[in-house]
Amino acid sequence: MARLSDYSDYYDKSEDTTNVSVSDLFIDIYKNINITEQVDKIKQLSKEELYLMLILCLDKFPDGDVVVTHTLSFFMDEILEIKTFLETKETNNKYLNYLATKTKDDYIDTDNLSYNGELLPEPPTIDEVRDRKLRDININNDEDGK
């Protein structure tokens, strides 16, 4: 097993290691993951962003969120890798090691994720999710002529 410290010289230290910038797809998933199932979109993410998304979901969304839990259930192997890494700080997974180095935190800090130079907002609240779902239902009913 590799320890996090084994990788400290592997990555270019001149890179910005304060904020980790994420893609448009990542943001789209993040904004919708507790509203609708996002499995197919998550599968399109790079491996680094896949692990970031899973860690972000584990950190930011309540355990009882049915939509998020359903989505995460498709990535149990990766989640088990994350759990083991966070408990032992050891892994042979180059993506987890990279993210720990990039975020300067062996926990893999998701508080410094950014998009277009801005830190990610907090995930939608339960009320915001409800309002969004109701708005989507109304839009669909309007399109159906109801």
In brief, what are we looking at here?
The protein has 146 residues and is mainly alpha-helical. The chain is 51% helix and 5% strand.
Beta strands, count: 3
Q: What is the spatial order of strands in the main beta sheet?
A: 1-2-3
Shape: elongated
Question: Which H/E pattern describes the elements?
Answer: EHHHHHHEEH
Number of helices: 7
β-strand percent reads: under 5%
Number of domains: 1
Distance between the termini: 60 Å
CA gyration radius, whole angstroms? 17 Å
Low-confidence stretches: 1-17
Biggest β-sheet description: 3 strands, mixed
Determine the mean pLDDT. Answer: 81
Secondary structure class reads mainly alpha
Q: What do these coordinates show?
A:
The protein is mostly helical. It has one domain. It is 51% helix and 5% strand. The chain is built from seven helices and three strands, in the order E-H-H-H-H-H-H-E-E-H. It has a three-stranded mixed beta sheet with strand order 1-2-3, with no helix packed on it. A hairpin with a 2-residue loop joins strand 2 and strand 3. Helix 3 packs across helix 6. It is elongated, with a radius of gyration of 17 Å. The termini are far apart. The N terminus is likely disordered.
